[in-house]
Amino acid sequence: MFTLLCGYPPFWGDSEREIYGRVRKGIYAFEGPDWQTRSLYSKDLIQKLLIMNPKRRIGVDEALRHPWVLHEGEVLDPRSKRIIGAWATIHSRNDPCWLPYRIRLYASHVGGSTV
């Protein structure tokens, strides 16, 4: 969801080690012009989805009842320029540390539910 709303993944770095370190620590930010136009509800849902402790993380049923999904959520057309741009950006990265993002984006594009 983070990537679809802004076009880049929540965890980034100059090396695979740095990226995985950020993933393990849950370090991400809503920075840049892409996030200035996003609602507080969208950011709230993303924060709840990215909670490191799975016991505290929002579940699927609760996420589907979240105010952003019910009242503000965008219908994301997989053929939209923004989605295609996000796909192209992630897909063009040949660095192996981008592989998990490429796999997840591909699965969401073809309708896969588990990756």
Rg for CA atoms: 14 Å
Largest sheet: none
Nearest-integer average pLDDT: 79
The percent range for helix content is 40-55%
Helix/strand/pairing category: mainly alpha
- Which outline best applies? globular
Distance separating the two termini = 15 Å
Strand content: under 5%
Series of secondary-structure elements, N-terminal to C-terminal? HHHHHHHH
Number of strands: 0
Give the low-pLDDT segments.
none
> What is the number of helical segments per DSSP (H or I, 4+ residues)?
8
Describe this structure in words.
The protein contains 8 helices and no strands. It is an all-alpha fold and 115 residues long. The chain is globular and about 35 Å long. The two termini are 15 Å apart. The model has no long low-confidence stretch (mean pLDDT 79).
Question: How would you briefly describe this protein structure?
Answer:
The chain is built from eight helices and no strands.
Draw up the topology in text.
Elements: H1 2-6, H2 16-25, H3 33-36, H4 40-49, H5 60-64, H6 67-72, H7 81-91, H8 99-110
Record keyword descriptors for this entry.
115 residues; mainly alpha
